[in-house]
Design goal:
Oligomer: single chain
Low-confidence stretches: 1-8, 48-55, 160-174, 374-385
Radius of gyration: 29 Å
Mean pLDDT: 79
Largest sheet: none
Strand content: under 5%
Number of helices: 19
Order of helices and strands: HHHHHHHHHHHHHHHHHHH
Number of strands: 0
């Protein structure tokens, strides 16, 4: 097909280069990347001198290099894709300057390759370079910026770098974790605030994406130790989730968890227990006692009471958690061992070494602890009878 189209065109002409490139695009659309590469390479080799009215041969080549990079990216040959995208970028920087939309496109393309290589830090850097250009050329409220910020969200979503911080499970939480790990709180706050402004203007305050931004900003303030500002945004998150889902939904419970975590950090332990308790009440209704969120909530309440040195209440909630784990988890599940360990450590803090060693043993041999629990329950039932 392609050779017949080129037969009557001069082999070294600009028309031949354009035709070769068009044929390459056709093969790409058909999914035949090898043929697409062949014709795109022909176009590049010819060295087109006129493209869209631009008589700069280097500018002609940058489009060919970009097409080659795109084809290699589609073929998942990431090293080659990066090589050609970088060639295109260098020409654009030399001929167009650092603040041109085509340079932003090159940065986006290179970021995408780094993301697929799982080189996430580099991907973030290139996406941020692209966004900087987009802001200066398109303005801060252009809808394309929301897409750019979402691309960054996709990078962090790929990282799956979970930690024990107050958060929900949206992809933007990955962004906050990595930026906080880098200690770049101000940059995180700046980026999320810009994204929130665009979302509020284009989506409205009750959109789920806005909730994600409230959550992220609350998390950054929490990491910075600005607890009042963190609470301000987590309260906005809570209002958004209530409006969307009503009261008895898991996302509302997660918002209560976030607020509880901030009050715990503020050492306002009564408030922390209040919000964790609201969360677990919803979880029991919405998820049922078998769901792991319930035991996590009981453990959080227990930890607050332990911090307060209210050991009796801490034991009460650790025991509630362990009873559910014993009832619903396999004996080899690590959460069951952790349940015994929590109580063992609590007894250690209480100075009850015998019980501490007992539960420490059960944490290493959960099957024994479960058996003893069953025997104790049977003996209690006999006494009741």
């Amino acid at each position: 097909m392609g050779r017949s189209m080129l037969r009557n065109i001069g082999p070294g002409s600009a028309a031949a280069a354009v035709t070769s490139n068009n044929i390459g695009s056709m093969y790409k659309a058909m999914g035949d990347y090898d043929q697409a590469l062949e014709y795109t390479m022909k176009s590049l080799t010819i060295g087109i001198f006129a493209l869209g009215g631009d008589n700069n041969p280097e500018m002609a080549n940058t489009y060919m290099y970009n097409d080659m990079g795109s084809l290699y990216h589609d073929k998942e040959d990431l090293e080659k894709a990066l090589e050609y995208y970088t060639k295109s970028l260098n020409i654009r920087l030399n001929t167009l300057g650092m603040n041109h939309p085509d340079v932003a496109i090159s940065y986006h393309n290179i970021a995408g390759v780094h993301k697929d290589r799982e080189d996430y830090e580099e991907a973030i850097d290139y996406y941020m370079k692209a966004i900087s250009i987009d802001i200066s050329t398109l303005g801060e409220n252009h809808h394309a910026l929301a897409t750019s910020y979402n691309n960054i969200g996709g990078v962090y979503n790929s990282m799956r770098d979970y930690e024990d911080n107050p958060q929900t499970t949206s992809s933007y939480n990955e962004i906050s974790r990595v930026l906080m790990r880098k200690g770049d709180y101000e940059k995180a706050l700046e980026n999320f605030s810009k994204l929130l402004a665009v979302e509020l203007k284009t989506l409205g305050e009750n959109h789920p994406d806005v909730a994600g931004s409230y959550n992220n900003i609350g998390m950054v303030y929490h990491a910075m130790g600005d607890y009042d500002k963190s609470l301000e945004y987590f309260d906005k998150l809570l209002s958004n989730k209530r409006h969307t889902f009503g009261e008895n939904h898991r996302d509302v419970a997660l918002a209560y968890h976030n607020i509880g975590a901030v009050y715990k950090a503020k050492k306002d332990y009564d408030k922390a227990v209040e919000y964790y308790s609201k969360a677990v009440a919803i979880e029991l209704i919405a998820l049922g006692e078998k769901h792991p969120d319930v035991t996590v909530s009981y453990d959080k309440i227990a930890m607050v009471y332990k911090t307060k040195e209210d050991y009796d209440k801490a034991l009460e909630y650790y025991t509630k958690s362990l009873e559910l784990k014993t009832k619903h988890l396999d004996v080899k599940h690590p959460a069951l061992a952790k349940g015994y360990d929590n109580i063992g450590r609590l007894y250690f803090a209480m100075g009850d070494m015998d019980r501490a060693h007992e539960f420490n043993f059960y944490s290493q041999c959960p099957a024994v602890g479960r058996l003893k629990s069953t025997i104790d329950d049977d003996e209690s039932d006999e006494e009741d009878n």
